[in-house]
Amino acid sequence: MRQAAEYLAVSYWTVRGWVESGKLSAVRLGERPIRIEGQILIA
Question: 2-20: per-residue pLDDT in tens?
């Protein structure tokens, strides 16, 4: 999520809020890592 936040020029907490609210789609890969699709960030 930190990389997505840097790419979008917003805070980590903003991206986290978007994921939790469903505004941004993300997939959990195990215990900690979360993947956000690059195509979603570009659109």
Answer: 888 998 899 999 999 998 8
**One-letter amino acid for residue 21 of the chain:** S
Q: How many CB atoms lie within 10 A of CB 17?
A: 13
Q: Is the pLDDT of residue 32 over 80?
A: no
> Can you give the residue range of the structural domain that contains 22?
2-42
Number of structural domains in the chain: 1
The C-alpha atoms of residue 42 and residue 7 are separated, in whole angstroms, by: 10
Contacts of 1 (CB under 8 A, 6+ apart): 12, 15, 16, 19, 26, 34, 36
Query: What are the tokens at 33?
Result: 């890592």
Question: What are 38's strand-pairing partners?
Answer: none
